[in-house]
Amino acid sequence: MNKISILKKLNKKAIENGDVPVSCIIEKNNKIIATGYNMREKNNNPLLHAEIVAIQKAAKKLKTWNLSDCNLLVTLKPCDMCVEVIKMAKIKKIDYILENEKIINNKLILNKINIDDQKYFINEIKDFFADKR
């Protein structure tokens, strides 16, 4: 079965569950290692975009979150959340079929606060990474 046929089949599963028909394939060395489709409605979870589902499956299969040797194919250009997760998984190439014209504007307020114990948190992160190296 070719990649486009797989994406069509996955999109049908999403539609059956009342989800937006978006699907994703992750490949390593030109071999499909994981697939995913939107499951937000099915599982009542806003994180379960097709890309996230596929990344979780690929990471589990490869036993690493570092997917730098993998490529991603998705039916709809990834949203900002998915792009950031794709970056964190170190995937270097995204191929997509359709543009994503949806603009999310929920008037989020992102506010940095200053606290007396700020140095504690700075040192905790520094120490964590120093121990890793």
Structural commentary:
This protein has 133 residues and is an alpha+beta fold. The protein has five helices and four strands, in the order αββααβαβα. A four-stranded mixed sheet has the order 2-1-3-4. Strand 3, helix 4 and strand 4 form a beta-alpha-beta unit. It is globular and about 55 Å long. The mean pLDDT is 92.
Please summarize what this structure is.
The chain is of the alpha+beta class and 133 residues long.
Using brief descriptors, characterize the structure shown:
about 40% helix; 4 strands
Given as residue ranges, the uncertain stretches (5+ residues, pLDDT < 50) are none
pLDDT averaged residue by residue: 92
**Roughly how many Å is the radius of gyration?**
18 Å
Percentage of residues in helical conformation: 40-55%
What structural class do the secondary elements suggest? alpha+beta
Strands of the biggest beta sheet: in what spatial order?
2-1-3-4
Describe the secondary-structure layout.
Blueprint: H1 3-16, E1 23-28, E2 31-37, H2 40-43, H3 50-62, E3 70-76, H4 80-88, E4 93-98, H5 118-132
Parallel strand pairs: 3-4
Antiparallel strand pairs: 1-2, 1-3
